[in-house]
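Deliverable D4.2, example record:
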Amino acid sequence: MTTSDLYGELRPRAFAIAYQMLGSVGEAEDVVQEAFLRLHQTQSGGETIASPRAYIATLVTRLAIDQLRSARVRRERYIGEWLPEPLATDPTPGEHAETADSLSLAVLVLLESLTPQQRAAFLLRDVFDYPYAEVAEIVGTDVDTTRHLVARARGHLRQRRSRYHASRQQRQQLAGRFFAAVEHGDLRALEELLAQDVAMHGDGGGKVPALGRPLNGRLRVARVLAAMAPLLARAGGVRFHLTQVNGQPGALVFDARDLLVGVMGLEIGDGRIQTIHSIVNPDKLQHFDRVGDLGALVRASHGGTWKG
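Output generated by the structure prediction step:
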């Protein structure tokens, strides 16, 4: 099988590992490209690779661990709250529910609290279902240490992870009502849809207006969201295209010229919206087509005060 054939077969899994390790589409793509370049170089040198699948998984994971260590230094200097780069794609039918859930923005944020080695061991074992012996070989530890890494990661995430459950249909219906309420600035409807302790997170990277820190509480979040419609209407308005954002309900936000200015993802449970993630940093939207300028949009609204 040629390197090109292997790329087509192995790339989806390689990208999934890299992205869930790094929370960055661009960095994940770089890691995957580097891994396949090394595979090609090794094969071109006449070396036989018994299992290209294991070879690529090992390379991608180890490269991602190294990349994550350097990325975390940069993220410490990040302006405002750092959120993962969003993916607006549906999980494939063959993916397990756990895999789709692990893609959610909320879970990716939680994974940031793990060490790079814990994160790798947890993802490979619990998300991608690699046996402990193979995980140990990939991350460079023995089996007992790997079991310990995974157990520590599970315990850490279990303490902080949401336990809300809702069917996909319920989530989609609630998301539709939510974005309609935001679009119309309907404060009362928003209050009915939000959980009492809802949290809203924003990431503008210091480049466009965004929340500087998480906003908590139903009334505070509802007021900020309701203020968006009249503010942005003065600049031509925005429209919300409902889609799946990292396997959960969300929307792409477009300006009047059909340029993407933001991505919003929702965590829904118990009939209410529990968490909102709003990514408006244009650098984190470059993997989408035709990205606009939210800063210009806000300035065009004549000095409005919205920070969401």
